[in-house]
Every structure is written in C-alpha cells, then in structure tokens.
Amino acid sequence: MARIEVKHLRTLSALRDCGSLVDAAQQVHLTQSALSHQLKELEDRLGQPVVIRKSKPIKFTKSGERLLQLADQMLPAVEQAEQDIVRMAEGKQGRLHIAIECHSCFDWLMPTIDEYREDWPDVEIDLISGFNFDPLPALARAELDLVITSDPQNLPGIRYVPLFQYEALLCVAKDHDLAKKPVITPQDLATETLITYPVEHSRLDVFKYFLLPANVLPTHIRTAELTIMIIQLVASGRGVCALPNWGITDYLEKGYVVARSLGEDGIWTNLYAAIRDDHADAPYMEEFINTARECSQRNLRGILEPEEF
C-alpha cells in the first residue's frame, strides 16, 4: 500500500489553510474524528509525526512541511485532471487535428473554427495542409482526427460526412479564347497548360470527372500550392485552372479572371469531412461538423445542400 495518498495531501493542505482540526474537517467534508484518524494513519505509515501536537494554529514538522510542498505540486494537477475527465465524459473536451486538401478551404474553415471555439474552448484544434502527404491513411491510423476532402477513399473505419455541394469551374484570362465559349469541352483543354494544386491527377475533379473519362490530357501541367498564385498565373496568360466556385468568387468579382462550366451540366461534387467511426458520435465532433455546414451555407456563394455519400 502506498504510504502517501491524495487524501492525505488534501488533509494537510486543509489543516494549513484553516489552522484547526474543526475547520479543516469541514473543508474536506469529514468529521473531526475521521480527520484525526486519517492524520494518525499517515503518521503511522511514515513512522514519524507530521504536525506538532497542541499547537495553535497548527504547525508542521519538517516532514509535514515537505508533504505540503508535495501537496502544492500535486493537488492542482489532480484537480485539473479530474475536471478534464468530467469534461471528456460530457463530450466537452477532445482533440481535432484537421488536414485540409486544398488551400482555398481556409477561406471558409477559419470562420468555422472561430465560431466553434466560442462554444468549445477546451477542444484542442490544429490545422495542417494535406498537400505533402496522403491524409486519409493518416486519419485511419489516428494521427489525424478530421480531413476536409473532395476525394473519398474506401478505407476501413472511415466515414465521409458531406458538408456541401459545389461546382468546379474553369478559370481563364479575360482575353483568352476560351472566355468566349459558354461551355468548355474536354478537347478544349488538349492544347492548354493546366495549373493545379500539387496532388495526384486522379484526385483532382477536373481530371477525375472531366478529362480522364474523355481520355484527354492537357499539353502541359503546372503546379502551385496557393490559390492566389494559381489565379495570378491564369490572369497573366500562363495557363488555365479548375477551382471550386466558392473559392473564386472574389477573383471573379474583381475581374481578375473569368469562369466557365466544364461540360453542359457542369461538374458538381461534394466536399466532405472524413472522420473515424469511433469518433463519429463524440459531441465535440458532431458539433464541429454541424458548425462547418451552417457556416459554409451562410458564408459561401454558389454551393448547394450536399448529396449523401
């Protein structure tokens, strides 16, 4: 049996704070007799006294003073851990390490996080880019907690919660020949330089839903990580790009580029929150996804209610 227990530290701390057995007993919710018994139990275990008998207010031996130092170190940590465990049981505390597969997602995700933090301040949130690694396998390994993606992969234990539906649009310079066409065909891109994010082509909407089914590839492919860099390259006639409609609204309004639909019906797809099955019912996770849905519908133009996955 351990010689020193948390209850002993709490008793000694109460004795120091209150100065008497009567008041200390009330503070730790014990009778005076029970507190005296607990104090004697501690001294018997240690084989030496920790308080000086018949001192008023109560004084401590050197051993008792050393235990009070320990109490000052340990009790705040114990109390914090107890509070954390209660909040975890209530679903108010957790971890959200989020990976984002497109930089334009920051435009709507940051307001979502700001709104979420107001009601869930004890949830640890961290953001990383998903460009330099494949985040979905990392999610399955519990290295991440949530991935924002438009490219679901069939992985065990991972579910995809649709956030909203968006259209992928082709952006071209204002004086580009394709700006004169109301609808873009795959063949229109066969002679173009396509500027994309630096991810596998099969994970990009323009390839997955538009070019590859038509067995068409652009003449050149160039990559850039930042949306603003891609737009600047397009505006200066260095190529064309395909981006989500909600991510280019400001650039279209300022006249930097023009946008056209890909195909007669356009390319519409979902943006998803990918999470692990074992986290799906956590209140802090459910609330984050609800906040993301509401915030995106409120702040983004051109999106639709999501289709179920």
TrEMBL record:
Gene Ontology MF terms: DNA-binding transcription factor activity; transcription cis-regulatory region binding
Record InterPro entries: LysR_HTH_N (IPR000847), LysR_subst-bd (IPR005119), MetR_PBP2 (IPR037406), WH-like_DNA-bd_sf (IPR036388), WH_DNA-bd_sf (IPR036390)
Annotated source species: Ketobacter alkanivorans
GO cellular component, as recorded: cytoplasm
Matches recorded under Pfam families: HTH_1, LysR_substrate
Localization terms from the record: Cytoplasm
UniProt key word Transcription regulation: yes
UniProt keyword annotation of Transcription regulation present: yes
Family membership: Belongs to the LysR transcriptional regulatory family.
An individual GO BP term: methionine biosynthetic process
Location (main, coarse): cytoplasm
Designated name of the protein: HTH-type transcriptional regulator MetR
HTH lysR-type domain ranges (all copies): 4-61
Keywords: Activator, Amino-acid biosynthesis, Cytoplasm, DNA-binding, Methionine biosynthesis, Repressor, Transcription, Transcription regulation
Superkingdom as given in the UniProt entry: Bacteria
